[in-house]
Amino acid sequence: MALKNDRFLKALMREPVDVTPVWMMRQAGRYLPEYRATRKQAGNFLKLCQTPELACEVALQPLQRYEFDAAILFSDILTIPDAMGQGLYFEEGEGPRFQKVIRIAKDVEQLPALNVTADLGYVMDTVSLIRRELNGSVPLIGFSGSPWTLACYMIEGGGSKDFRKVKEFMYNNPEVMHLLLEKLAIAITDYLNAQIRAGAQAVQIFDTWGGILTTSSYFDFSLTYMKNIISNLIKEADGRPLPAIVFTKNGGLWLEAIANSGTNAVGLDWTIEIGDARKRVGKSCSLQGNMDPFILCGSDGTIRDEVGKILESFGNGNGHVFNLGHGISPGINPDKVSVFVDAVHELSARYHS
Amino acid sequence: MALKNDRFLKALMREPVDVTPVWMMRQAGRYLPEYRATRKQAGNFLKLCQTPELACEVALQPLQRYEFDAAILFSDILTIPDAMGQGLYFEEGEGPRFQKVIRIAKDVEQLPALNVTADLGYVMDTVSLIRRELNGSVPLIGFSGSPWTLACYMIEGGGSKDFRKVKEFMYNNPEVMHLLLEKLAIAITDYLNAQIRAGAQAVQIFDTWGGILTTSSYFDFSLTYMKNIISNLIKEADGRPLPAIVFTKNGGLWLEAIANSGTNAVGLDWTIEIGDARKRVGKSCSLQGNMDPFILCGSDGTIRDEVGKILESFGNGNGHVFNLGHGISPGINPDKVSVFVDAVHELSARYHS
């Protein structure tokens, strides 16, 4: 079935669009009361992720309220380590935790290969269901954490303030770290390709923790593995190209290298001026971003002004997907999201004439 | 009295030196058992800061162990808001907290002007004492938090994961935020000049949280105020120039602008390649940094290799002060610091011939 709204896919391929497409990282999330209700019904966050009907429901909720140009799979970035036997769980009010953590070389060597169909079938079921329910309205984005980001959680056992454990591991056992990242890159490639086969029409790699690395470690331990993944992704689906997006938080210093990784688009956090980013990447790829999520705490006028500034900074022409520079925060008033989304569509038309 | 070792001051002024000078952010700190003993004797961290004899003792401890080329005042970056009546305290195992937080315009308007001599005399006493005890061996660095960084703590009431409160305040009340930053800039200028009069021979502004801002907000709400401070600092002491260092964590995107702020040196975190940074700043200023602090978890060989790579990346010539890209972490083995400091001196000689 033909897509009714394919602005998002066109912008990722630097093709002309009528207005700038927009979606939000974490658009299906806690800022929405209907999300909180479904999550309560599921029992907890992990069960919500693992129940395709409910995960599909929350993925569609933001599209019922707002004119978003894409839907994104509702899931967690840590499904892969969980499927590899690390035992993902969430403590109330805390971030993710693992029952088993990677401490020594043997832990990496013994890490089982992932069988995506057997181990993560619930994710593919969710993808298929969302795709079916979207009924061609907007495209569906699949996603995964990056190898480096998954490794951070697997070695730290959860989030971290300083990432001491994973850095200690990397600096003392670089070859074992590479083995872990290779295993994860293979698993992630399979995972993303399975999502594409199940119906995802674009994929995003979340490199949430790439930005904590030195430049040379970023290239060696994060970007290389994302490149490998991208080069092994299915390149076409439904007769059109299947675009990839790489989002490295705090990756502004490495923009040219990320843009040349084979990705179709680079996700930008809010710290970089998008016009500067555009000059730096040239025509090598599209850009996605990059409003500070906390602009949504401001007045309607502040939100519209900031959207206008970002559009102006990007300027005329193709290759921009509007987004926040990070996931939306749970405390945001849902009404502000309408102001944001409508401003993007309304104010961007003049840059696409 | 003439300085016996003035490498640090010379490097900050881009003058020739025999070897690259080195010091470490948080060099007087919890990784040292003798520090922990003195802190215990003081009762707690704040009392340690407020007792000149003990603060002087811990400031000198690292110099007894290592060949550092500079000492730094031992104090906290939050002495100014504390002196303004915000009520600084520390909870065991937690970061800093304030009893009073800035919530509304009135809180900013009523914030008293700082009288550094009356309110922060203990800091100046500490500076004088350290300077006297150093006895001309190495120069003494004074410091302050940046206006933006102090404002973050004063509005958040402590540290933060997402800085929602301070951003909400800034985006909703930009003019009140500017008033707060102006007041803080005046206080910080007085504070640093008082440290210089008391004996500080260089000053560093810690802009710990500038990196959480968008580019335009960084310029408007952080860098502008640091520029104002720098332009009003005492420019000479003991017949030599008094250099300033600006350290914005995650400020790599804004390097040229920071370098042109009037500062003599830019402190770099570990994410940027120092050779790239040098190309970008040209001859406008010196660079300080920038080894990942967690390299100190590695083997002696790893530490020496990394020191060598950073020296090679900077290359021949003047204008480099070696440092970590962030404060040393409490769990580091003190023996590793010797390896680090000795490697800098030993491996850098060939770049200064």
Fraction of residues in H or I helices of chain A? 40-55%
Q: Give the mean pLDDT of chain A.
A: 97
Shape of chain A: globular
Low-confidence stretches of chain A: none
| Proportion of residues in extended strands of chain A | 5-15%
Looking at CATH, which topology of the largest domain in chain A would you report?
TIM Barrel
Counting copies of identical and different chains, the oligomeric state is homodimer
Structural classification of chain A: alpha/beta
Distance between termini of chain A? 28 Å
Sketch the major β-sheet of chain A: 7 strands, parallel
CATH architecture of the largest domain in chain A: Alpha-Beta Barrel
Structure summary:
2 copies of one chain form a homodimer. With 353 residues, chain A is an alpha/beta fold. Chain A has helices spanning 7-12, 33-42, 45-50, 52-65, 79-86, 105-109, 116-119, 121-134, 147-156, 164-172, 174-198, 215-231, 255-259, 274-281, 300-314, 334-348; strands at 71-72, 88-90, 96-98, 140-145, 202-207, 236-237, 240-241, 244-248, 265-267, 286-288, 320-321.
Describe the protein's architecture and organization.
The structure is a homodimer of 353-residue chains. The first copy, chain A, is of the alpha/beta class and 353 residues long. Chain A folds into 2 domains: 1-27 and 260-353, no CATH class; 42-65 and 70-250, TIM Barrel. In chain A, 48% of the residues lie in helices and 10% in strands. Chain A contains 16 helices and 11 strands. The first copy, chain A, has helices spanning 7-12, 33-42, 45-50, 52-65, 79-86, 105-109, 116-119, 121-134, 147-156, 164-172, 174-198, 215-231, 255-259, 274-281, 300-314, 334-348; strands spanning 71-72, 88-90, 96-98, 140-145, 202-207, 236-237, 240-241, 244-248, 265-267, 286-288, 320-321. In chain A, the strands form 3 sheets. Chain A has a 7-stranded parallel beta sheet with strand order 1-4-5-8-9-10-11. A two-stranded antiparallel sheet of chain A has the order 2-3. The longest helix of chain A is centred in the middle third of the chain and has 25 residues, at 174-198. The first copy, chain A, is globular. Chain A starts with 6 loop residues before the first helix and ends in a 5-residue tail after the last helix. The relative contact order of chain A is 0.14. Chains A and B meet through α10 and α12 of A and α10 and α12 of B.
